[in-house]
Design brief:
Elements: H1 4-18, H2 23-37, H3 54-70, H4 74-91, H5 100-112, H6 117-136, H7 163-171, H8 176-188, H9 192-196, E1 203-204, E2 209-213, E3 219-223, H10 226-238, H11 255-267, H12 281-295, H13 301-314, H14 319-326, H15 331-338, H16 342-352
Antiparallel strand pairs: 1-2, 2-3
């Protein structure tokens, strides 16, 4: 069995090799580390899980109660719970004992293990929100996040779908419900969760608009094209359920699909009832992903939302109006969408310079 020092050197060798470092350099680094460690007594750190006391558990509960009172959506709460649980379990210390170095070590571990900068930043934001709340309410001092440098996120702008690709997605949608859903998703620019949450009574078909409850439990008005209205009316013609949901269970699928849904819901302790059914975000997202697979290019709900925003800006809609339509708090978020308008920028360059 390797000694702690030998295991440390072996870990360094493996890490360097996995990152494509030349073997001769690896040998040199190993020799230097071996020589340096000979002056120290190296011991493996005890990593037994520390069980939080009742005070720690109570503090976490109070934090999430305050987030709920602030109006955070359930999805945001789930994301924060998952991230905070992961970080605290990984650090393995009582809350009041966590230091800036502990958090830096966690972020470094995530980076070494190949986690994306966006994922690392999410965990850092979660910890920052939690410890800032703890400090503000007098539970800890100092705030260990104050000295932790912010993780820089490298966004790689994803190209919006072309008009031709969007038409291909429409054609491949299959059933009338799916066609109507994609048209409404593109027309309104809604998040998939927002669209799935709508009821039939929410839509004003005369004004071609609908009030959507978005992030932060704030309402905004989104608009419906004639094309989306027509697609939805076609869906209504074949719809047999009485569900109040704008989009219910699939009625055009073969019986085998319904039978599978019966079994799945039975396992979840639910009863299949079309008159109470609602298309769920996960089911809708999978439907859109499957369309992309059948066409040979990547498609997901947010890409359709981005395509709508990109097309609107290409046709002259002011970016601040696009921001309002999408429900973005900051125009900086909307600006990320504009970064993919390379052809427009090139045309403007030729026109004005």
């Amino acid at each position: 069995m390797n000694t702690p020092a030998e295991q440390l050197i072996e870990d360094i060798r493996v890490h360097l090799y996995d990152n494509g470092i030349d073997p001769s350099i690896i040998r040199s680094v190993s020799s230097i580390v071996d020589l340096s460690l000979s002056r120290f007594d190296v011991r493996e750190k005890e990593m037994a899980v520390i069980i939080y006391d009742a005070g720690d558990t109570d503090l976490v509960k109070k934090y999430f109660i305050s987030k709920a009172v602030q109006g955070c959506t359930e999805q945001t709460m789930v994301t924060y719970r998952r991230a905070l649980s992961f970080c605290l379990n990984k650090i393995q210390k009582h809350l009041k004992e966590i230091t800036s170095d502990d958090i830096r070590a966690l972020l470094a571990w995530l980076k070494i293990n190949g986690k994306s900068s966006a994922y690392i930043a999410l965990n850092q934001r979660t910890l920052s929100s939690f410890f800032t709340w703890c400090e503000k309410n007098g539970y800890i001092t100092p705030n260990p996040m104050d000295k932790v440098e912010r993780t820089k996120v490298r966004y790689r702008p994803e190209e919006a779908l072309t008009l031709e690709q969007m038409e291909m997605v429409r054609s491949a949608a299959g059933t009338k419900r799916n066609k109507a859903f994609i048209e409404m998703l593109y027309s309104t620019g809604c998040r998939i969760s927002e669209l799935c949450a709508l009821d039939r009574a929410d839509v004003d078909w005369e004004k071609l608009e609908v009030q959507v409850l978005g992030k932060g439990k704030k309402y905004r008005t989104v608009y419906i094209t004639q094309r989306a209205k027509y697609a939805y009316l076609e869906y209504e013609k074949v719809r047999t359920d009485k569900s109040p949901a704008l989009f219910g269970y699939e009625t055009e699928s073969p019986w085998s699909g319904k039978a599978q849904l019966h079994v799945l819901m039975a396992r979840q302790g639910k009863v299949y009832d079309p008159d109470k059914g609602r298309l769920e975000p996960g089911v809708a997202a999978k439907m859109i992903h499957d369309i992309g697979k059948s066409l040979g290019f990547r498609v997901h709900p947010h890409l359709i939302r981005k395509t709508m925003a990109t097309q609107a800006m290409m046709r002259g809609m002011p970016i601040d109006e696009v921001r309002i339509m999408l429900g973005h708090e900051s125009i900086a978020t909307t600006t990320i969408y504009a970064q993919t308008l390379k052809d427009n920028i090139k045309d403007s360059h030729l026109k004005y310079l």
